[in-house]
Amino acid sequence: MRNAIVALVLAALPLPAQAPCDCIDKADIKERIKRDTAAIEAYGKEVVTMAMTPYTTPGRVALQARVNTAMTAINTPGRIPLQASGSTDNSCNITVNAPTKCLEAAIRIHEKVHQDACRATYDQHHVIFRRKAMDRFEALNMTMAGYIMEEVSGYQAEIMFLQKELARLERDCKPPPPPAGRDYTSRGYEPDEDHGTSPSSAPAPSRNTDPTKPKPMVKPKPLPTPKPIY
């Protein structure tokens, strides 16, 4: 009865969440961090000239094209680049397109920043639904700088997640250390028998024990008798 009660209690406990990234994802994580950093740097250059520019959908599309160019320029030689993307619609729903669970989790964390901002301004969405604005940025009369800062926050959240996962994988995925000492298991004798000297390293005995004695002459073999030519 006691074992049955323990089993029921254990079954009721929530299972620990499985980490989304594995050892095989380490290279992808490093490249994604580089791409996210390139995006933040590109936004930083853009915000200088677009600080007071009113937000428009064509302006956003052109800006994103320039940022995407900076991101795709990051490509580690010898690796197939993995493309991942996400979006948050006017109803605050997230869509993620990623080839691996690890990148999917990273993109979803990025989009969660947009989703939270979307839900915080949901009262203004009636302007969108009445087709008086394309999205919440237009509905709020935001500047391009405001849009840029939200994107930078999304990439920063993504980088923080990836750096944490990378640190965990660097710790857990290390190869086993080499053996501490020499392995004598394949030898037919103990190391003390030759004071630790391996038979392969011992000098081979010389056949000519007297170095002053000349080596014996080797009589050459007679050449075969040539056959007559007819």
Rounded to the nearest angstrom, the radius of gyration is 36 Å
What's the N-to-C terminus distance? 110 Å
- Read across the widest sheet, the strand sequence of neighbours is 1-2
**Average pLDDT reading:** 81
Morphology: elongated
Number of helices: 7
| Percentage of β-strand residues | under 5%
Q: Count of DSSP E strands?
A: 2
Name its key features.
230 residues, mainly alpha, elongated
Structure description:
This protein is mainly α and 230 residues long. It has a domain of 143 residues. Helix content is 47%, strand content 3%. It is built from 7 helices and 2 strands, in the order αααββαααα. A two-stranded antiparallel sheet has the order 1-2. Helix 2 packs across helix 3 and helix 2 packs antiparallel against helix 7. The longest helix is centred in the last third of the chain and has 29 residues. The relative contact order is 0.13. About 6% of the residues have low confidence.
